[in-house]
Each structure stands twice: as C-alpha cells, then as structure tokens.
UniProtKB/TrEMBL annotation:
GTP 1 binds at residues 8-15, 55-59, 117-120. It comes from Auraticoccus cholistanensis. One of its GO terms (molecular function) is GTP binding. Signal peptide: none annotated. This is GTPase Der. GO terms for biological process: ribosome biogenesis. Associates with the 50S ribosomal subunit. GTPase that plays an essential role in the late steps of ribosome biogenesis. Transmembrane segments: none annotated. The keyword Zinc-finger does not apply. SUPFAM superfamilies: P-loop containing nucleoside triphosphate hydrolases.
C-alpha cells in the first residue's frame, strides 16, 4: 500500500486534514502548535484506492530540541513515503518556514501535492492562489474543517502516487509454482509419482494457463499446483560425476522459477553438506520452504535420535521452515505436504499494515531498547514493509543498529506475525 506523508509547519491544520482524509476523528486536534508530536499512520481509502496516511506533527527543518525530533521524524516519514502532502495556511500566506520546508521536499524528489488550508469561503480562495509562489504547481484550496475542496485534493494525491498494482482478484492468477529439489536418490521422482499418481496431471488449455512443457499440473488436496521442471526429475537426468555443476544449475533454475520449494532429504541417512547447500539456495532465493524428510519407513528409533541431533546441529538456521516426515514409498504423510505448502505460501505473501508494524516496533523497542554505545542510543524510528514474497521490511534508524539487535527484532517479527515457512528480510537504513 502506498504511503502519503502529511507535512507542514505547526498549526496549519494538518491533523484536521488527516482526519478529513481518513474520515474519522482519530488524531488529536487542538489549536496548540506542535500538539501532534509523534508520527501516526492511518489506513485511508479514496475512490477504491487504499493508502497509508502518515501524520508528521508540526515541522520546521531548522528546529532545535523537541522540535528537532519532530523534524527528524518528518524527514523519515518523507523518506519512506511515495508522495508528500504539504499543508500551508492560506490565511497567512507564504512563510519563511514554508519555503525551508519546500527546499527539503525538493531534495527528497518525492511527488508533492500542495494543500492551501483554511479556505473556508470564496473570499480566502484568492489568497490560496498566492501559494503558487512556492513553486510546487497548483495549490489545492481546502477547508479541512468544513471539507471544502478535499475531494479534488485527494484526487490529486492519488494522481501523484505510483501506479496502483492491479487488484489481486482481477488478475487471474495461475496455479502456484512448486519445485521439488534435493540431491540425487532422496526420492524426488518417487514423490512426484506419488503426488501425480493420486490425480493424474492434466494440462488444462481451457483455463488459459500456460504451462512450460517441462512442468506438470499436480493436484494436492483439491488445489492445483504447477510443479516446476518435472521433466528433469522424470527423465532422471543422471548427471555423471563431474557434472554436478550442471545439476546444481538446474536446481538453481527450478528454485528461481518456483514460489515454494519442497527440499527432499533422505531421513534414513545422515544429513549432508549438499542437503544444506540446497536449503541455503532456497533461503537466499527468498522462496517459501517445506522440508520433506523422506524414507521415513526406513528410520528406526536410533536413526531418528541422530536425525534430531543433526537437525539441531546443522539446520538451526532453517528452523523457520515447515517439516513433513514422510515416505514416498508407503505414502505416509504425503497428504500433509499440501497443508505445509499452503501455510508456507500464506506466510510468504503476508503484508503487514504499516500501522500494525509500527505498533509492534514500538512495543519491542520500548521493552528491549538497543544498548547504548559510546554515549549514544541507537533507535529504530519507523518501519515499513517494502515487499511481500518474501516479506521484506525496511527499518529507518538513528545511529548504527547492531546485527544482533536486528536478528533479535527479526525473531520477534517471526513470532508476532507467524512467518513459518518463509524467509524474511530486514533492511536497515541508518540516518546520520
Ligand atoms: P531421486 O533421484 O531424488 O528422484 O530419487 P528416486 O525417486 O529415484 O528414489 C531413489 C531410490 O529411493 C529409489 O530406489 C526409490 O524406490 C527409493 N525411495 C524413494 N522414496 C522412498 C521412501 O520413502 N522409502 C523407501 N524405502 N525408499 C524410497
């Protein structure tokens, strides 16, 4: 969802305008300069388009003390925004502070929409025209208090936002792409046979989905999936030794094309370096992951004991992945793969609303502040999810955040938002 930052110097009516945009009286409104101190984000909707509004509190770029903190917050909000709504007070005309704000906005290169507020009647409308002097193009005269002009303003804001991605339900999405990967002889082709044997794969022309001839449509538990590069598995391309490089390329290619990967591991034999390399490939490609411990029928208590030790010793970094203990031979728990795949994909596609994410960050940071280093307190100020599939978050910080602290936040994110089955990425942008 695109983000609109609302900025302007104190007392121009930002919070009233934000309330007008979100259609309720949620922000604190008081006729006292600087009363909305913290940035607060709200979900808004106009003409069927959803976006996030970030209210930034009164902002003067050259501020000191508390005001300087507000300025810092405002600049962060601008950095994270897709468009900026600058609010000025039409009844007092252009102020020096407004011009300073405009200079900062120019540097940010974000699209800016100019709202000339407090145009409560026809008479003040002429004064709004003087805001052309700011050099930001057409000023939109509005009365946040009475709602006058807010429709045109919102149209302009939507216009300034990046192109809306087409609604998910409008785009007929093809079946989800699944890759079965693993080293030779772990049971990939046996698994594929078992899965497609339950329901013979048909390439359905009528549904308009194009399936690469090396792929197959396979149904599991009523859902159809596109299994990637099944030709490679079925043809049983037995790479002679020395050709492992090509096998690895093929695996890499399948992983890249897939949304979710089933990494098959032979549970009856020790977990090997090659298994771990394939898991790492999936993690680095940012794909959802289900680990299938196959040949379970060949494991006894002793083997399972050692397998658990191997998992604890070598696979901790993949602790987020789902596991299925199965047998392609007997069919044990093969049906559970469907549930595991769905769960992993749902986590992989999760979108955390900006407001919810920042409420979470606020809680975590308050309960476990970053340790103070050389007299300074590095802080996470604001976060936003930049992408889904896999979930990718950008954290805006003041000061250098230590890697351990980033990992700590990542663990808490996983717990709070239940990211089982998907890698997640955290990107940190430190401010000087
Ligand atoms: P791929 O190279 O990964 O495709 O592995 P295959 O599917 O060709 O299987 C390799 C060997 O393991 C074959 O002899 C299979 O019959 C056997 N196999 C596969 N899955 C199982 C299983 O769950 N249990 C047992 N006991 N054998 C299996």
């Amino acid at each position: 969802r695109p983000v609109v930052a609302v900025v302007g110097r104190p007392n121009v009516g930002k919070s009233t305008l934000v309330n007008r945009i979100i259609g309720r009286r949620a922000a604190v409104v008081q006729d006292v300069p600087g009363v909305t101190r913290d940035r607060v984000s709200y979900d808004a909707r106009w003409n069927g388009r959803e976006f996030v509004v970030v209210d930034t509190g009164g902002w003067a770029p050259d501020a000191q003390g508390m005001a300087a903190q507000i300025a810092e917050q405002a600049e962060l909000a601008i950095a994270a925004a897709d468009a900026v709504l600058l609010v000025v007070d039409a009844t007092v005309g252009v102020q020096d502070v407004d011009e300073a704000v405009v200079r900062v906005l120019r540097r940010s290169r974000k699209p800016v929409v100019l709202a000339a507020n407090k145009v409560d009647d026809q008479r003040t409308e002429a004064e709004a025209a003087s805001m052309w002097n700011l050099g930001l193009g057409q000023p939109y005269p509005v009365s946040a208090l009475h709602g006058r002009g807010s429709g045109d303003l919102l149209d302009a804001v939507l216009e300034a936002l990046p192109e809306a991605p087409r609604e998910a339900e409008e785009v007929p999405r093809g079946p989800r792409r699944v890759a079965i990967v693993g080293k030779p002889n772990v049971g990939k082709s046996s698994l594929l046979n078992k899965l497609s044997g339950q329901q013979r794969a048909v390439v359905d022309d009528a549904s308009g989905t194009t399936v690469d001839p090396v792929d197959e449509l396979v149904e599991i538990g009523g859902t159809t999936y596109q299994f990637i590069d099944t030709a490679g598995i079925r043809r049983r391309v037995k790479e002679a030794s020395g050709h492992e490089y090509y096998a690895s390329l093929r695996t890499q290619g399948a992983i890249e094309r897939a949304e979710v990967c089933i990494v098959v591991i032979d549970a009856s034999a020790p977990v090997t370096e090659q298994d771990l390399r394939i898991l790492t490939m999936v993690e680095e490609a940012g794909r959802a992951l289900v680990v299938a411990f196959n040949k379970w029928d060949l494991t006894d208590d002793e083997r399972r004991f050692y397998l658990n030790r191997e998992i604890e010793r070598d696979m901790v970094q993949f602790g987020w992945a789902g596991h299925v203990n199965m047998s392609a031979l007997t069919g044990r728990h093969v049906d559970r793969l469907g549930v595991a795949i769905e769960g992993a994909l749902a986590a992989w596609e999760t979108r955390v609303p900006t407001g919810k994410l920042n409420a979470f960050l606020g809680r975590v940071v308050a309960a476990h502040p970053h340790p103070v280093r050389s007299g300074k307190q590095p802080r996470i100020l604001f976060g936003t999810q930049a992408q889904a599939g896999p979930p990718t978050f950008v954290l805006f910080t003041s000061g250098q955040i230590e890697p351990q602290y980033v990992r700590f936040v990542e663990r808490r994110l996983r717990e709070d938002f239940d990211f089982q089955g998907t890698p997640i990425h955290l990107e940190v942008r430190a401010r000087e």
